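Practice problem: predict the structure.
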Amino acid sequence: MGKTESRQNQELSELSSLDAVVIGAGVAGLYQLHLLRGQGLNVKLFDTASGVGGTWYWNRYPGAKFDSEAYIYQYLFDEKLYKDWSWSERFPGQPEIERWMNYVADRLDLRKDIYFNTTIASSHWNVTSNRWTLTTTNGEKIDAQFVVSCTGMLSAPLEEPFPGIKNFNGRVFHTARWPKEEIDFSDKRVGVVGNGATGIQVIQTIASSCKSLNVFIRTPQYTNAMNNPSYGPKEQEWYKSRYKEFQNNLPNTFSGFEWEWRDGDWSDNTPEERLAVLERIYENGSLELWLASFKELFFDQKINDEVSEFVRGKMRERLKDPELCDLLIPEHYGFGLHRVPLESGYLEVFHLPHVHAVSVKENPIASVTETGVRLQDGTDYELDVIILATGFDAGTGALTRIDIRGRDGQSLKEEWQKDIRTMMGLQVHGYPNLFTTGAPLAPSAALCNMTTCLQQQAEWINDCISYVSNEGKNVIEPSRTAQDEWVAHHDAMTNETLVAKTNSWYMGGNVEGKPRRLLSYIGGVGNYRDKCLEVAASGYKGFEVR
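Answer:
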């Protein structure tokens, strides 16, 4: 145990009363700590990890990298902080991202108020004191007026998705809990379960170094080839010169990215013009094809079908083999209605003789044996390593894994097992003074350049807490009526889209028994921001302040 950790553990046992607790040292948590500290509050941050970074601490699997451009996945509240860091490429990898997160923590002098290696096990509201009592897994008690959850939207991994996995004689890795040491696959028979955005990054990175690689595929994915140039001084000067543009523009776009729907409606373009737009954006090699080509792909089945076929055509050109096309190209859902991964040579790895795609749609994985994976029909795949890219209990899981109890002892986990409801993804009725970032029913749950949305939420929460204090009040929570109205609005926006008809983790479909509701607000980042600002300007209409 290092001196800092020892000192902090000693101090933790002595904590009695805080103004605020922040849970999670990722993008949102670091900024939230900085903001709350700036208004003079006694605030501490707690994280299970041994260092800062959040998702960029835990997700250190081979090939992990941004799929937002580095120059917009940034804090935009401090120009010098922004410009004093230089990125080496458009979509850098995890080691560089983690270094950046540490740079931010050091520049803002945040570590002195962070408790690492500390897991919050429970948070219970005390109706007498109007305060939260938090308990760590080691039994320490922490008392706070406000709790801000910055636990992340994708931070509760599904680590044991198959029976028998603990009996496997080889090594099992979940991508979201990857060890810090380098893993050598050169003489290993490897199986990867899952081919979403994370699985794709792993597969394309390790394929060439494995003795053999079996990829177990349930749902084929549309992919877009990543265009990832290196950045030198010229490119770094170019994006840094756009700081003010990004600061003004990003919070007001549909997706929190730099682009918007710039080519007009589908009907404004001839078939030739539409194809030219799709070709241009596809070659850009970013998420623009998904989030800023033609907005009608989210609403109109015929238009979605055309865009989907365009992407399928691009994938067929690269795969060539009809059997691989059948295994790897989606046919049963449309482009953009699930998460769209970027990739670098992912499709081509299946041409390697030692790499095999195994469809488990009709013949699912039944169990893990001592020697490998067994399918429902009894087929066995002998493996030395199993890599689980099996995803997360998205949006809700990080909060429901903490025993959070509000007024009258009500359990957030039990409530969300029945119905997932929030007020703008910022608070939940019945849980006073509990604020959330990256929670359900806000764009930050999935459909956003995360730093754009998380900064906006952290700033709104900071202003809200300041308002409560300045009004001489102690408690704020949304009314049931206001929350119901937000949920109804959220659902109405969702039901206008084709996304509502799909079955993906966006709709909670990857977790058995999870209530079906689109986790992310789909009405647009700029629109959501305006609604949040309207609430604040009205004196927090819809919230009960007392």
